[in-house]
Amino acid sequence: MPLEIANVEKISPSKNELRKIFLARRDALPASTRERLSALITERLLNWPPFKQAQRLLLYASFKSEVDTYPLIKKALALEKEVYLPKTYFRPKRLRLFRLHTLGELRPGAFGIPEPPETNPELSPEKLELIVVPGVAFDRRGGRLGYGGGFYDRLFGEAKGARRVALAFSCQLTETLPLEPHDVLMHALVTEKELIEFR
């Protein structure tokens, strides 16, 4: 599966300004609303054929006001899929992928984000079939605005054969984001209202 790169020329407004705007929107959702919308998003993803077919998945442990991924992780484990979660490293700057057997294995890691233990089996990114991707904002071309660390961008370059599906509340979706030539596009986006396939 080819790695599709955004074809854009300039950036305006700044990505940092957009991060503040979209994080504020997401943070403004009441916890009860986030829980309800997260359940709808999870249900859409679970019924998506590429998710059903994938056996080797990279998920992420939700943090702060992100779409709640814990029910998704629990369900994927119950379906006996191989579930991996990222662990953040800074020297060199990268994500390493470790298998998760139970939610009880998660411990706070970099930035306070729950991570699996590095004593668990590790997977090379090129062996992934599907990556569930977090982010701050997304657009209707498959563009993604991340948190600014570049960790997932590096991972996408290593996991060229995996489908990339993002999870977001509809308040995080916009028509177009200011992308750079190296930004990697998503294959799909799931919100509480729709599942959009870009390619």
List keywords for this structure.
three-stranded mixed sheet, Rossmann fold, alpha/beta, single chain, 199 residues
Descriptive account of the structure:
The protein is α/β, with parallel strands linked by helices. It has a single domain (15-197), classed as NagB/RpiA/CoA transferase-like (Rossmann fold, 3-Layer(aba) Sandwich). It contains five helices and 13 strands. The strands form three sheets. Strands 6-3-2-1-7-10-12-13 form an eight-stranded mixed sheet, with helices on both faces. A three-stranded mixed sheet has the order 9-8-11, with helices on one face. Strands 4-5 form a two-stranded antiparallel ribbon. Strand 8 and strand 9 (144-145) form a beta hairpin. It is globular. The model is unreliable at 4-11 (pLDDT under 50).
What is this structure, in a nutshell?
The protein is of the alpha/beta class and 199 residues long.
Question: In the residues, how many domains can be counted?
Answer: 1
Unreliable runs: 4-11
Largest sheet: 8 strands, mixed
User: Rg, please?
Assistant: 16 Å
Q: What do we call the CATH homologous superfamily?
A: NagB/RpiA/CoA transferase-like
Strands of the widest sheet, in order across it, are: 6-3-2-1-7-10-12-13
SSE order, one letter for each helix or strand: HHHEHEEEEEEEEHEEEE
CATH class: Alpha Beta
**CA-to-CA gap between the ends?**
11 Å
Question: Which bin fits the share of residues in helices?
Answer: 25-40%
Shape: globular
- In the CATH hierarchy, the third-tier topology is known as Rossmann fold
Which CATH architecture would you pick? 3-Layer(aba) Sandwich
Query: Whole-number average pLDDT?
Result: 93
- Approximate strand percentage: 15-25%
Structural class based on helices, strands and sheet pairing: alpha/beta
Count all strands and give the number.
13
How many helices? The count is 5
